[in-house]
Amino acid sequence: MSKLLWDSVGERLYETGVQQGVLYVRDDTGAYPMGVPWNGLIGVTESPSGGEPTPSYANNIKYLNLMSAEEFGASIEAFTYPEEFEECDGSAEGAPGVSLGQQGRTTFGLAYKTLLGNDVDNEEYGYKLHLVYGALAAPSEKSYQTINDSPEAITFSWEVTTTPVNVEGMKPTAVVTLDSTKVNALDLATLEDMLFGAEASEASLPLPDEVITIMSTTAV
Fold first, then answer.
1. Res. 126: pLDDT tops 60
2. What's the rounded Cα separation, in Å, for the pair 218 and 41?
3. Model pLDDT, residue 220
4. CA angle 190, 196, 200 (to 5 degrees)
5. Helix, strand, coil tally for the chain in percent (to 5)
């Protein structure tokens, strides 16, 4: 037995930032090929919902709790967005340079990193890699204002809902998160070559089953 200690050196962990966002437009087969960088990404707010208990009573006491299905939603904020995102935002090209709104919205996937820090290595400690599937962006407000003596760049934002994808042996999910401080570095490098592209391959978003396979390749 040992006495519990709080806030030991190297264990004061925190998470911050968002970087290296990548957009993957889903194709007709349900795959997510041809990732493109999302420049100007300001923030991603993950907003899970559901997972709430509904109590059932019998013999004048609480008999059990039934849990509602959990859903994953998010909001995205950015200074700009990839041209490929226009079809995800309900736009279609009527002619070169002519964009028509209120069109159908295409499902997409998303990848981004958040930084992990501690009291020793600061933000060099590690990072989390977030993968989002089955995302659909809702129409959002865009505010345009005159330039004045305190100009600010316009920011865009979208509310996102998701439809989970199947995972063998587990419940369907719309989000996968990897912790660089816990996974095998070689397997993570292989996965990131797929996500961000390499000299011999285009960037693409593997489905959760394939992610699990990749991250289980190296023997412990």
1. yes
2. 33
3. 54
4. 70
5. 10, 45, 40
Strand partners, 135: 108, 162
Please, which contacts does 190-193 make with residues 24 or more away whose CB atoms are closer than 8 Å? 190/214, 190/217, 191/129, 191/215, 192/129
CA–CA–CA angle 194, 198, 202 (5° rounding): 65
Token pair 């990072």 is found at 127
Structure tokens at 150: 């305190």
Whole-model pTM above 0.85? yes
Determine contact, residues 161/132, Cβ cutoff 8 Å.
no
The average pLDDT across 42-70 equals: 91
Under 8 Å CB-to-CB from 17, ≥6 apart: which residues? 114, 115, 123
DSSP 29-71: TS-B-S-EE-TTEEEEEEEEEE--EEEEEETTEEEEEEEPPEE
Looking from the CA of 143 toward its CB, the CA atoms found within 13 Å total 7
For residue 116, the surrounding DSSP H or E stretch is strand 108-118
> Position 91: which residue type?
S
Average pLDDT rounded to a whole number, residues 179-187: 96
Q: How far apart are CA 43 and CA 41, in angstroms?
A: 6
pLDDT digits (tens, 9 = 90+) for 69-101: 889 999 999 999 999 999 999 999 899 989 899
Q: Round to whole Å and give the CA distance between 25 and 109.
A: 6
